[in-house]
Design the sequence.
């Protein structure tokens, strides 16, 4: 069932990035005997992990992915495999089946009428005009399943700690410069470098998520903006990148950044100058900066470095060097950021 869901998701999920069309570098293989985790003293190897996921994505498909995408896919399934091993070990200890143990961990959730009504009210616009009476049973079942899974996760976390689980699989990391306009403290334990394009709709879509990350992880995350204008499909993107660098000279990059994304379909003509005025820039200095082309080389350097580390589309994010491509939801950032913060805390202790 999980395999069918994954295949369906790959087929129907919308694109999340503007792509330049350049082919990604072909990744190399990995030794199947490499240890990727231990559970209760038992080792899980990379070969076992790939065997575990082979029915959900053929090896040929996996090999065509980028190194970062391969790792992300394996990491997701490693969590499932670790959970499976934990249940098997604990079930054997209790002399019950893994299915019986899972049912025990989930327990029985009780959902009140008030919770059902609150869910209906919050999601009424998405329910196609159906009444509360029509939807109550389905909403209750949905909330009960959520609560049961949440209870199971709490129990599994305790079981994981008691059993002893170590994840040994290291995420691939790119060496990427963090020079550029930034938000957040310079000494933050997590640095996110974003390669972006002011005419890319997916970059505009990702912008609120980046702001949410900065808010949720205030003081712990620094975001650095770098340029990757896709000139072959976005004719105004490079000029917008240069103009934003001129805005940065006046410490107005982020104000200009927000205006550009709010008007991403109207960056041609004299609009870049108009938006500079809206951002409160000194127009004489801005126009002189544009005219002398002083930031052309910096945009070129961003492009060259991005291509060297495998960027082919925007937005592309590097979280402490770990690549996250496309306009991903907050949860995708949270998973990597939490892992990086835990890694930093472990290193410091």
Sequence:
């Amino acid at each position: 069932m999980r395999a069918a869901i994954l295949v369906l998701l790959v087929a129907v999920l919308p694109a999340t990035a503007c792509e330049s069309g350049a082919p990604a570098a072909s990744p190399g293989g990995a030794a199947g005997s490499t240890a990727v985790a231990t559970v209760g003293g038992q080792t899980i190897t990379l070969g076992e992990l790939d065997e575990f996921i082979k029915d959900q994505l053929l090896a040929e498909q996996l090999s065509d992915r980028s190194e970062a995408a391969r790792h992300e896919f394996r990491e997701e399934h490693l969590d499932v495999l670790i959970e499976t091993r934990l249940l098997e070990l604990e079930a054997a200890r209790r002399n019950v089946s893994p299915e019986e143990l899972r049912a025990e961990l989930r327990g029985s959730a009780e959902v009140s009428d008030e919770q059902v009504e609150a869910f209906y009210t919050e999601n009424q616009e998405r329910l196609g005009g159906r009444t509360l009476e029509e939807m109550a049973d389905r909403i209750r079942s949905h909330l009960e399943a959520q609560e049961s899974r949440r209870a199971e996760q709490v129990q599994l976390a305790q079981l994981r700690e008691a059993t002893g689980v170590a994840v040994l699989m290291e995420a691939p990391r790119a060496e990427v410069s963090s020079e550029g306009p930034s938000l957040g403290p310079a000494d933050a334990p997590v640095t996110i470098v974003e390669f972006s394009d002011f005419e890319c709709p997916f970059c505009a879509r990702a912008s609120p998520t980046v702001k949410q990350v900065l808010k949720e992880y205030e003081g712990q995350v620094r975001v650095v903006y770098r340029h990757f204008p896709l000139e072959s499909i976005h004719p105004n993107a490079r000029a917008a990148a240069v103009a934003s660098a001129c805005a940065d000279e006046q410490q107005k990059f982020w104000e200009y950044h927000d205006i550009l994304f709010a008007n991403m379909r109207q960056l041609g003509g004299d609009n870049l100058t108009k938006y500079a005025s809206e951002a409160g820039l000194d127009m004489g200095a801005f126009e002189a900066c544009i005219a002398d082309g002083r930031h052309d080389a910096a945009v070129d350097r961003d492009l060259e470095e991005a291509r060297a580390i495998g960027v082919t589309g925007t937005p592309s994010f590097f979280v402490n060097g770990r690549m996250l491509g496309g306009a991903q939801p907050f949860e995708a950032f949270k998973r990597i950021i939490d892992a990086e913060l835990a890694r930093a805390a472990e290193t410091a202790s």
Notes: Strands lie at 18-19, 35-39, 42-45, 165-167, 182-183, 190-196, 221-227, 313-314, 316-319, 322-325. The chain has two domains: 32-172, 182-348. Residues 1-13, 22-29 have pLDDT under 50 and may be disordered.
